[in-house]
């Protein structure tokens, strides 16, 4: 082949992959390829919120528009540990479009905008008492029919609340999402390791939403945009991030090439931050790695190691109480649920000590609630099967049933639905499917009627197991 032919051929071929002499730098993606992680206000999904005063404190409750008749059912939602009432935002939009009802979404104590005298008391008895008092305060006289709907920890609360003599008479149905006693109790041993693997601080609300999606905590970006700001606090103001959403301006300042960071902890605080933040040039030189590269391009080892992890990452303690906790909490480790295509560790341009780099932290330190975990889930299956009201169980996997529930399901003691293509936050990942199943459940027991849109969906004929 002549030199002319070679030059012509080269011009038509894609560029070569650079030789791996050292570490290759990936060019930043264009802004058009970067997803929009800007937060969204809860006001797009709920009509209003009220702060319910009880003897324990103030509980934030979000409400969808009033139904067409006072006798319509209220779907009282209870979120999982670490989440908030806003995790039901997209579900609320979907189900109120299918059936005549109102969604009442409560922030559990220690979460969201709820403020109580003892936020650390998360015993199951206290949580049930909170639900009783909030319902009594919302409906002074005869309450309308109530369907309790709970996810994970909230599902455990819903089951126990359905047995409460104070409100049992008003509970006309109970639906539990992805929580089973057997699997929950088995997972408790590894829960602390999972929690330590999460980042403790985020640079911005957008970064928190991005981590939420890339880590797999929530797989639905639209849902993460509205729910994640209710799970983090502004370190400087001590207020929940949702208070900044209405006036939030999308970040347009030049930063390091964030889109080249393909892991769930992109833009979160890492130990590398204080080494590479002297200049923006050093930050831009941060490189992504691939699995085929040499050993020295794998995830960076932090200064101290954790015997529970074999991936050379440090898991920062979330339950630190010393004066040095802030410095420790500014470090980030890769989560156990990291996506398989993660290519490296990432550092934000600012130093660890920079206030802007540590602007947001988790609303609640879940690791400090460990003493209550067994109380939440112990005896849950039996309590669920003996609930007086009709029962619905939604799972992300058919393998989630324990023996007691398997027997109960074979005996037809409850309705079960398995929803695939979703993670643990089933109602956030697939809100339309969850709404359809719950709406069908409510219609099947003749607690309400379908809306005009719902009539075209043939909801009652939706399959059940």
Automatic annotation (TrEMBL):
Alphabetical keyword list: Hydrolase, Serine esterase
Enzyme Commission numbers on file: 3.1.1.-
Molecular function terms, GO-annotated: protein methylesterase activity
Active site per database record: 152, 178, 424
Start and end residues of each stretch annotated as Disordered: 1-20, 250-351
Pfam families: Abhydrolase_6
Compositionally skewed regions (Acidic residues) per UniProt: 271-281
Keyword Iron: no
Catalytically driven reaction(s): [phosphatase 2A protein]-C-terminal L-leucine methyl ester + H2O = [phosphatase 2A protein]-C-terminal L-leucine + methanol + H(+)
Top EC class, one word: hydrolase
Biased composition (Basic and acidic residues): 250-261, 283-299, 333-342
InterPro entries: AB_hydrolase_1 (IPR000073), AB_hydrolase_fold (IPR029058), PPase_methylesterase_euk (IPR016812)
Span of domain AB hydrolase-1: 78-191, 351-436
Stated family: Belongs to the AB hydrolase superfamily.
Function: Demethylates proteins that have been reversibly carboxymethylated.
UniProt cross-references to PANTHER family, sorted A to Z: PROTEIN PHOSPHATASE METHYLESTERASE 1, PROTEIN PHOSPHATASE METHYLESTERASE-1 RELATED
Record protein name field: Protein phosphatase methylesterase 1
Highest classification ranks of the organism: Eukaryota, Metazoa, Ecdysozoa, Arthropoda, Hexapoda
